[in-house]
């Protein structure tokens, strides 16, 4: 086959890569457009603030918003310290020997397990064995386990990318290990760590399989950690699968997408301010 | 302290795993002198500095033989408080490394970690240190701006001021001007000449002329061995060892 001239090759590469990018962006925009076009018409303040009625056929989605927020907050509050702590230990307090590699390998395997398996595990351990029942507590704990690998992984990468010179400077100025970690390493790694946590917030908001088995699908307003609740994703799934109300299903989906977008934007805004302040 | 030696190094070898980076070094550092250490790349100069403040401890598989005594006490004794030791020996690295925080906070960093509190005390320490480091006039109106915004030469003087704020006895400099222009280099060298009245300084440099300019005595390292140490005048005009002579004439390195 005759080779193309470098100039044509260059041009072809540019156009090819541009086309690939265009396809990616189009798919994304199409999904958002599709959901919003069907969802936006039912959106109004009442949809957000009223509780579902008639199994979700009428009324709003307020209790599912509360349930989603409660589950996500609980999951992140548990998973973030555990994950970040593990990441700090693995990167700063070990030499990277066999034990570290086994822990890291374990975390990576955990990341590959389908969420429905986590759901089943959470159902057996928290719902039945520990008798938490279908509840925010069971769901939050299950989600936390599911998020751990991501948080560990992203935090580790963020901590590893802190220049080693910072540590040397800190130690040479008479800092202890802990001071070095908390005053030098973590502030520099924070943007990366936060990115990981935000990704996992998005994941837990969107999670369906793991929560339906552990938090249940009650539409009542949850009153405690032991209340069963229905997340927005589960609500969407049930409304759509059982054909209860497609408009309300898309309305829920639209809120989900808008919420995740808003969280991402807010985080990047805050992170940019943080980075500007410290560099 | 006996016979005026601030640091006594006796038969000191440093290993990283199986690799020996320093081979039975014997050397004394006198109080309030500037000791220059010259030698080609990978001759163990930086490893030697990091043996003095035990920064080598942070490297995996690090191991040593022999002794380093500061004020008569072996710094590798099990009872030694490493954090306190490192406060005693401030270190400036080859590339300026301001921490990603303000000029003020960079200088106050060590003092704060040592538990010092109170704005007034920190203010005066920061000012003193920046004055001694020869940077005060240039930054006094913008102590709140990030240390990363300074020029390379200013950053290195910031690093110098930062260690002075911890009130060390010794200043270790690891090729502090290797990335700097001649004027910034000159400013650092001026600071060093002033500082030796109060501090004992060990200056590792791959610029032999710099050792000739500022060091009272000079040591020549080669492949982890101390080849020769003596007054700078003697090392540069009539070295005992042919290898020293060869290095200074630019035959290798």
Overall structural class of chain A, as computed from helix and strand content, comes to: mainly alpha
Strand tally of chain B is: 10
What is the percentage of strand-forming residues of chain A?
A: under 5%
Average pLDDT for all residues of chain A = 90
Total number of helical segments of chain B?
10
- CATH homologous group name of chain B: P-loop containing nucleotide triphosphate hydrolases
Defining key terms:
heterodimer; A: 279 residues; mainly alpha; MetI-like fold; globular; B: alpha/beta; Rossmann fold; 6-stranded mixed beta sheet
How would you describe what is shown here?
The complex is a heterodimer of chains A (279) and B (253). Chain A is 76% helix and 1% strand. By secondary structure, chain A is mainly α. In chain A, 38% of the residues are buried. The model of chain A has no long low-confidence stretch (mean pLDDT 90). Chain B has one domain (5-248): Rossmann fold (3-Layer(aba) Sandwich), CATH 3.40.50.300. The interface between A and B is medium-sized, with 21 and 27 residues.
Write the topology of this structure.
The complex is a heterodimer of chains A (279) and B (253).
Chain A: H1 6-39, H2 45-49, E1 52-53, E2 58-59, H3 62-92, H4 98-112, H5 115-129, H6 136-160, H7 164-172, H8 177-206, H9 209-212, H10 232-241, H11 246-278
Antiparallel strand pairs in A: 1-2
Chain B: E1 5-16, E2 19-30, E3 34-38, H1 45-52, E4 62-70, E5 73-74, H2 82-88, E6 89-92, H3 103-113, H4 119-132, H5 136-139, H6 152-164, E7 170-174, H7 182-195, E8 200-204, H8 208-214, E9 217-222, E10 225-231, H9 232-237, H10 242-248
Parallel strand pairs in B: 3-8, 3-9, 6-7, 7-8
Antiparallel strand pairs in B: 1-2, 1-4, 4-5, 9-10
